[in-house]
Amino acid sequence: MAKGPTIGAMSAAIDPKFFRQVMGQVPTCVTVVTAMVDEQPQAMVIGSFVSVSLDPPLAGFFCTTTSSTWQELRKADVLGVNVLGADQIDVSNACMRAPDERLDGLDWEMDGGAPRLAGTTAWIRLTPNQVIDAGDHEFALCNVVEMSVPDEPNEPVIFYGGAYRSLAAIED
Ligand SMILES: Cc1cc2nc3c(=O)[nH]c(=O)nc-3n(C[C@H](O)[C@H](O)[C@H](O)COP(=O)(O)O)c2cc1C
Question: Which residue, judged by its Cα, is nearest atom 26 of ligand 1?
Fold first, then answer.
């Protein structure tokens, strides 16, 4: 992916532990971003996946610059975003194993050039647009080229306060 401009810089006045504690109160999705690079499947758990633009369709995610898997993912021509369901915590845990074992034993197949996991809440296929510096992370801005959801909606898993959660409807 080509390099783009830089997004801001973090204030030195914010204690990193406090930063994490406060940001832990911001719920996120749990996705597994996948790619096939040199015939080796790559997978990384990403909570920072975000919708960016409708016209043109853009989405992206932040990766820590120290991630070895990000260094592989950024070489790919196609990326898959597997949005995990509340019943897929085991899939997230599996994808936190050593990089070359992450998809072992999981139900997946190639779809349009990227590994697609079975049973997800949503599937989004991306192509790289640009990489934007963002402090100790980089933002992978991508083009959305294909999207799908299952016929039967599958509620997502949420990451909040350092733990996985499921959604509950609020009665009003
Ligand atoms: C729920 C959850 C969300 C995560 N979100 C991100 C993220 O958005 N960006 C990131 O760089 N790492 C994120 N991580 C951490 C990476 O998945 C983890 O550090 C991974 O091991 C990095 O790959 P590597 O060890 O192969 O370099 C997340 C982990 C979890 C469990």
Answer: 69
pLDDT digits (tens, 9 = 90+) for 40-62: 999 999 999 999 999 999 999 99
Nearest atom in ligand 1 to the alpha carbon of residue 95 is 17
Query: ∠ CA 86-91-94 to the nearest 5 degrees?
Result: 145
Beta bridge partners of 125: 80, 146
Domains of the chain: 27-160 (2.30.110.10)
Pocket residues: Cβ below 6 A from ligand 1: 30, 44-48, 61-64, 67-69, 96, 99, 159
Write the pLDDT tens digit of every residue in 86-138. Answer: 999 999 999 999 999 999 999 999 999 999 999 999 999 999 999 999 999 99
Q: Tell me the one-letter amino acid at 149.
A: V
